[in-house]
Amino acid sequence: MTNNGFHFPPGPKGWPILGVALQVRKDPLGTLQRLAREYGDIASVPVMGMRRVLLSRPEYTQQLLILDHAKLYKSVLTKLVVGPLLGQGLLISEGEFWRKQRRLAQPAFHRARTNEYSPVMVECALEQMKQWRSGETRNIADEMMKVSLEVAVRTLFGTSLASDSAGIGKAMTFLMRHHLHRARNPWHVPASWPTPGNRRARREEQFMDSLVYRIIAERKQGAEPRKDLLTLLMAAMHEDGTQMTEKQLRDETMTLFVAGHETTALTLCWTWYLLGENLAAETRLHEELGNVLGGRPAEVSDLERLPYLHAVVLESLRLFPPAYMLARMNMEPVRFGEYEIPPKTTLLSSQWILHRDARFFADPERFLPQRWLGGLEQQLPPGAYFPFGDGPRRCIGQGFAMLESALVIAAIAQKYRFRLRPGFPVVPEPLVTLRPKYGIEMKIEAR
Ligand code: HEM
After folding, report:
1. Mean pLDDT, the chain cut into blocks of 10 residues (447 residues total)
2. Do the bridges between strand 428-430 and strand 434-436 make them parallel or antiparallel, or are there none, so unpaired?
3. How far does residue 388's CA lie from ligand 1's centre (Å)?
4. How remote is the CA of residue 398 from the centroid of ligand 1, in Å?
5. Which atom of ligand 1 is nearest to the CA of 386?
6. Atom 9, ligand 1: which residue's CA is nearest?
7. Which protein residue's CA is at the shortest distance from atom 1 of ligand 1?
8. Which atom of ligand 1 is nearest to the CA of 263?
């Protein structure tokens, strides 16, 4: 297909104007997978009169995230969904401003610093377990959200916000749903109209704002030295000796908070689901944990002797990547393969599709942690497995998330196993992140 000299990749025609919007709305993951299968590694996805191009080859992912990084921007959709909450935080800021902020925040995520948070991560898991009784059924997605929310709050702010915790969880879930719905619905009313949804969004945003500003103010007054992430961000200096403004501190704090806790909670809850359905893998994990830890919680120094635990997390991130799709937009023409893509096209690369591609993963739909034990990570073509993205905008919290996942799983798996409530529907729902649509109700059994 050619248009003004540009050469579009093949793709479905879909309905006038709508394109394949209805199919995407009904079954986003299945539709994208079908398009990749039918039209190949580069496919046009017409939606609401806008051009989107789906890139499903590792080389293209690398081009998108690394080689052409400087030419591309975060997509308009991403900014519409998370912009109102995250402002100019790291996740969506661009250009020189983003580069400076990333440089400022990076030291707070060095491995040695992150490792200092490991006792808090274990503590939060142990505390949550105290609420559980063997034989009861709980929504494991909610339980893991509580653990990771508490980890995020204590490591970011150095304090427990136990009394605000439920409110924070509710506010976040509502805001993500609200903004995603608005971004996906071209007929939405302006944000300034006082509809019930808009009014509640404003209230929840104000609640989150006042919380973060209150903690920043407390920290400014406090004399005692602290080691939490907020303190590190407040102390960080630009090369010219200036520090972040209060608004920027708010945006970065909110970004770390939002980007960090939900993704990690999802990794944990998908992992429990997968282990509960794959008893051989669960048994092997129990054996490794028993041999190395003998019932005590793991410490950072134990992790190198727990390769199967690491493989379980990698495999869970492969099958249910919380970030299931990355999007960029080009402001100038870019070439992918033989196609010259016009400006203002949304370029998509999906972990969901590439992580389940049989060209790179044998038996791709099966949960087989052992596939990672022989050095698969190093042997894969770069760009085939990217749960944390890649290139300069790779997740700043990758080490943090991997550490938290391993420590929390090690602590919990030594005490409990989980079994899906018979007949419970587990439905992956691609919102901003890949969530289980109805949660995951599992029976908790003491081991
Ligand atoms: C399993 C958990 C996590 C997953 C799967 C995940 C995934 C990702 C991905 C895919 C990106 C790249 C987005 C893009 O290129 O458009 C990203 C960026 C980011 N993540 Fe994570 N993340 C996780 C945990 C965390 C944690 C724990 C934190 C902070 C404590 C964090 C903070 C961030 C930030 C600030 C960015 C933006 C980085 C930048 O653009 O410079 N993430 N994450």
Report:
1. 69 76 81 91 85 95 97 85 87 93 90 94 96 97 92 82 72 82 72 87 90 83 74 79 86 89 95 98 98 96 98 98 96 93 94 97 98 95 98 97 98 98 95 91 97
2. antiparallel
3. 6
4. 7
5. 10
6. 388
7. 264
8. 2
* Dist. CA 439 → ligand 1 center (Å): 22
Sign of the CA dihedral with 27 first, then 31, 34, and 38 last: positive
Give the chain's length.
447
* Ligand 1, residues at Cβ distance < 6 Å: 90-91, 102, 255-256, 259-260, 263-264, 267, 322-323, 326, 387-389, 393, 395-397, 400-401
Q: Which atom of ligand 1 is nearest to the CA of 261?
A: 27
For residue 91, report the distance from its CA to the centre of ligand 1, in Å: 7
Nearest atom in ligand 1 to 101's CA: 41
Residue-level pLDDT at 223: 61
